[in-house]
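W.,

You were right to be curious about this one. When I first looked at the sequence I had no strong expectations either way, so I just let the prediction run and decided to look at it fresh. Below is the sequence, 204 residues in total, followed by the output.
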Amino acid sequence: MSVFLRYLLVIVISYFIGNFAPSYFIGKITKNIDIRDYGSGNAGATNTFRVLGAAAGVIVLICDVLKSMLAVHAGLWLIGTQLGGMVAGGMAVIGHNWPVMLRFKGGKGIASSLGLVLALFPQIGLILIAVGVIVILITRYVSLGSITAVILCPILLVIFGYSWEICLIAGILAGMALLRHRDNIIRLKQGTENRISFRRKAGR
């Protein structure tokens, strides 16, 4: 099989791997709801956490990370290069954000992007997790922690000396994440963004 056909196969497979939306299925199974009709309207871990609780949110987070890691390994296997893994992971993120199976209304791609980074660049992934968690703990804005991490990712890839192709794809993914967070960015500027609470609710 030619390199072109292998890349085409990787792109298609990875996109449909990204289409798998655990938040949607958990919402249907546990509450018989479409998670996209509640909260922020996104099929992602943060919205699942807010609408369905911590346990469901953690499950979705893990599944979203793992699906992009699966796509990355498919790319590494079929293409045999780090760039192949990057393309595969990027397509999984696109499939997560704009899933044809859910009429192109998906999540924001943060957990899926994290899975890509952890699979290919674990050292950078751990740095991004640390930075994101610190920002969230200080500000209690999940969106700000996510935005900070996605902006930092391509910068770190450049600093660590990765190829321009990989850095370019990371930059495109960062741009997509910022686009998906445009409403959050507006609310952050206005001071109306929702903060996450670390306190247990009364009676629990």
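Here's what jumped out at me. The two ends are 58 Å apart (CA to CA). And, maybe more interesting for your project: The first helix runs from residue 3 to 19.

Coffee later to discuss?

I.
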